[in-house]
Amino acid sequence: MAAxxxxxxxxxxxxGKPALRSLSVSATVGDALTTLKRSRDNxxxxxxxxxxxxxxxxxxxxxxxxxxxxxxxxxxxxxIIGFLCKEENLLNPxxxxxxxxxxxxxxxxxxxxxxxxxxxxxxxxDLILExxxxxxxxxxxxxxxxxxxxxxxxxxxxxxxxxxxxCWLTQEDMVRYLVNSISLFSxxxxxxxxxxxxxxxxxxxxxxxxxPASSALPLLAKCLExxxxxxxxxxxxxxxxxxxxxxxxxxDEDVAAAIATLSAGELMAYIDFGGPPEDLIQLVKExxxxxxxVKALELMEDDSGNSSVSSxxxxxxxxxxxxGRSVVKSVGNSARSVKRSEAIVCHPWSSLVAVxxxxxxxxxxxxxxxxxxxxLFGIVTFAGMMKIFRETIEDHDLGKALKKSPT
Length: 407
Known about the structure:
The longest helix is centred in the C-terminal third of the chain and has 14 residues, at 382-395. The chain contains 20 helices and 15 strands. It is 39% helix and 16% strand. Helix 7 crosses helix 19 (382-395) and helix 9 crosses helix 19 (382-395). Mean pLDDT is 80; it is low at 51-66, 143-156, 305-312 and 314-340. A four-stranded mixed sheet has the order 4-5-7-6. Strands 1-2-3 form a three-stranded mixed sheet. The protein is flat, with a radius of gyration of 23 Å. It is α/β, with parallel strands linked by helices. The two termini are 14 Å apart. It has a domain at 1-169: CBS-domain (Roll), CATH 3.10.580.10.
């Protein structure tokens, strides 16, 4: 029964998921930003094909082009904000937005991998454990004439590639499936996480609350790839909050000015839901003036005068992405009380299944591990959790059973 369960096709984990909306790699950063703002999508995928712009005379070559169509990356608002934070881009954000979107796609690493819809869960888990961060699965649209229909009717639609639509298979999808089958792994699932060697205690993305927010940018770039966040700690190493890429996805591009001018602690207050405090808005403007970043200042002024565009981060996203409720906490010796999005935490002695359920409930791919006094101990991720389940499958010789099972 276990072998049959784990051999289930990954397409079953994608039932009901929306098709990937996409742009060509020839698009600009501004195109990506506009598309993200106009849609409900958190990410926009980028493909190496451009079949949305074939003319009638080009349709003879369209089939060959579709066969070569591959997803090469994905971009979110947080990626764009990080790009705009660079000094040269703050000097003229308008020109920066005209840059090709390829500048936002990682040049190294196995960032995106395609997987056939009839692949097994174990195959998908192995890709994640190899370092792949995003898996693309084809969604069957049925019919022998689907390719012909695509060329006739759907060639310009942004969700069709290779005659099919695609969706993301996420780490959350896989972990949720494993939790639903937890009885098969009960011996490992009840163990405390500090006994399973899955807590990352060496490479923790963290900055001090008094550090410049810009010092977190390299960490944020890495967190976007690894689907985690940057921890904010006080002088005693205690976790006081986080800078979350998920939260930045619900902010506007003028937040780049805040990142460039505020401390990490101030930035937490700036991006918290309900909108940035007026004193912090004024502080950002003053510092932009001091640094003669006129264009960045104009960007803030334009947004503040546009009722449809605001630098606040909507509270409706908080429940969806699990960034927690807003609380007011005194930060170490700082004179400022920082309103923050509370980081989701567990303890080293928390059980694996408890941490999995906690992460799934808050729609995040990680949980901070803290000591009893809230000193930051490490971080545990979905990838680390899946490692335990993969090892359990091997220990029970389910891997061999999977190879014998019919697909």
